[in-house]
Amino acid sequence: MVMLLFLALVGDAACLRLGPAPSMLANGRMTKKPPAKLGGRGFGAAPPTSGKLLDEPRYTALYEWLRSSPLTNLKKVGIAEFEGGLRGVMALQDIMAGEEIVAIPATLAIDLGADGVDPLPAARRFLGEMHGDTDGEYAAYWAVLPPPDAADLCTPDFFSEKELQMLQWPPLVVETRKRSAQLRKALGERAPNSGTPNDVMAVAGGNMRELRWAVWTILSRVLTVADPTDLGGHKLLIPLIDMFNHRGGSKHYLTGRTDGMLRVVAGATVKAGEQIFIKYGTDQTSNVEFVAHYGFVDPKAETADRTLLRMQPAMVPALKHSTLAQDEAELDALKAADGPYQEQLALGLRMALKRAALKEGLLEA
């Protein structure tokens, strides 16, 4: 009997070269809502080539800590670096369909409460847990999280005003600005502003940076898990499970059962050396959400993008500030010059939306 239902998902948002909480399904499986790079989990569509197993001390410490429970199952997987510098989970042995890929005891997860869609309360609780971990119980886990100044933090929350305008999607710009205002309100006098004295500006800026990072951590990594008596769910950070990258067609799934274990189960055969992917979100998760929470564009989200455009046709004129051909040329130039990833990501999103709009007949070629 399935006891734990995954409602929303993790993400280890690492800036990926253009590649949310899962929703509850009747069978108790979870879909994701939403690298060796400095950062966190792997996102996006990395090539399925063999990876290089990462043997840094922080990963060894993570394995040892997780295996402190005899219930943990990491026998056939390891954290590896894949093409493009993306960190993810690799199969060390062949894994058959229906086989358990990973199992983590729920006692090793970090429970951030049962709050709703607003990530701020869970973010503040997360910071409290981390700073209050005086005995270092979760030290091995904190060590593999991307730090607040990581280059991998590339979602719109970390965009400049120029980069926000490049998105050409007003709802995402509004959402980002609103979240920034909420963070400033939450920090109150500890937030930086035009009147902050120079001698305390560094501290005020650090407060803002840390809280923004904590919110990003919640949006990109947290799984919401519910049982029949609490369908609102609790937000959990689940070590190692939050390192699986996204692939739209993945058949692997996450599940929880009455024994208090949190698992990834193989929906298809995986060969040794291959990266193991799970699916973030549902078939209706659009690229706007992928960009907002994880910092990548998924070409397989076109159907969801078309649905979004049908629901918000008033936003389509914002996409007319440039043509698809102009965007493609600009992106090619940015890549050739190794330009800022944030700008590449903004171009990738508006190109994906324009392709969907063309299919819907909402834009002219």
UniProtKB/TrEMBL annotation:
Keywords: Methyltransferase, Signal, Transferase. PROSITE patterns: SET. InterPro entries: SET_dom (IPR001214), SET_dom_sf (IPR046341), SETD3_SETD6_MTase (IPR050600). CDD domains: SET_LSMT. Residues 75-281 form the SET domain. Residues 1-15 form the signal peptide. The keyword Methyltransferase applies. One of its GO terms (biological process) is methylation. GO terms for molecular function: protein-lysine N-methyltransferase activity. This is Histone-lysine n-methyltransferase.
